UniProtKB/TrEMBL annotation:
InterPro entries: DNA_helicase_DnaB-like_C, P-loop_NTPase, Twinkle-like. This is SF4 helicase domain-containing protein. Transmembrane segments: none annotated. One of its GO terms (cellular component) is mitochondrion. Residues 27-242 form the SF4 helicase domain. Pfam families: AAA_25 (PF13481). GO terms for biological process: mitochondrial DNA replication. Signal peptide: none annotated.
Length: 256
């Protein structure tokens, strides 16, 4: 069943909670999410496709506890996960407990949407912009956030990239791992540390480049020059000009 018949929709309007349970293959997983969009995600719950949770008729055939499986259904919709089209200017005012909201959101996204890489931009914002957050030890709070993401990454096998702005340094000095805002916990817990170095304002020939300052697993370190691409309005690896053999060029001109 890949399509929801139009005539079925009116009969489902009376229910405040709908549990979607299909097979444990990819197509069934996609069908569940598509149905939820049509039925209103806020009232839809999903039985996640797993080996121990096959399709309903298979579970019934093997005598599994259907009630127990249905009771484990998870909501598809989450208030902190949205699309660009549905964003509103008042989102900030709703995030009173932002670190809790973010953690719940990434855990939900990992479960429902199979997210394998989470980017948090940035950690300083997660520490809060409200009055009570200013009265707390910001270093302690940052350490707690990093510890939560470290546990999440290990438990859920999900890659987490944390953006942390550096502390103030002299313009003439390069940023290092010690320049990361907060205590040493951020650099100690990280498997990889990438630093964006910008020397364009301190030198006439200064460049912007990405530095690999830590690589826990292979140890390979280095730098990569960044170049601004006007077409995509973003920075990327500087493109190398093709290496043309001079002898070949001279030979081609001679043939002409």
């Amino acid at each position: 069943m890949s399509h929801l018949p139009q005539q079925v929709l009116p009969s489902l309007e009376q229910y405040s909670k709908l549990v979607l349970w299909f097979g444990n293959d990819i197509s069934s997983w996609d069908t569940s999410r598509n149905f939820a969009k049509k039925l209103d995600e806020k009232r839809c719950f999903l039985v996640r496709p797993m080996e121990k949770q096959p399709s309903p008729h298979v579970a019934l055939f093997h005598g599994q506890d259907l009630r127990a499986i249905v009771s484990q259904a998870q909501p598809i919709w989450h208030q902190a996960i949205t699309t660009f089209a549905s964003l509103r200017e008042d989102v900030l005012s709703e995030l009173q407990n932002i670190e809790k909201v973010v953690m719940e959101a990434v855990e939900h996204a990992t479960y429902v949407h199979d997210i394998s890489h989470v980017i948090i931009d940035n950690v300083q914002f997660m520490m809060g912009v409200f009055e009570e957050s200013r009265q707390m030890d910001r270093f302690w709070k940052q350490d707690a956030i990093i510890a939560s993401f470290r546990t999440f990454a290990t438990k859920k096998n999900c890659h987490v990239t944390l953006v942390i702005h550096p502390r103030k340094e002299r313009d003439t000095e390069d940023l290092t791992s010690s320049s990361i805002f907060g205590s040493a916990k951020a650099s100690q817990e990280a498997d990889n540390i990438l630093i964006i170095q910008d020397k364009r304002l301190t030198s006439l020939r200064g460049k912007k480049y990405l530095q690999v300052a830590k690589n826990r697993y292979t140890g390979d370190l280095g730098v990569m020059a960044l170049e601004f691409d006007k077409a995509s309005l973003s920075y990327g690896q500087k493109k190398k000009k093709p290496n043309i053999d001079k002898d070949t060029v001279m030979e081609d001109k001679t043939n002409l």
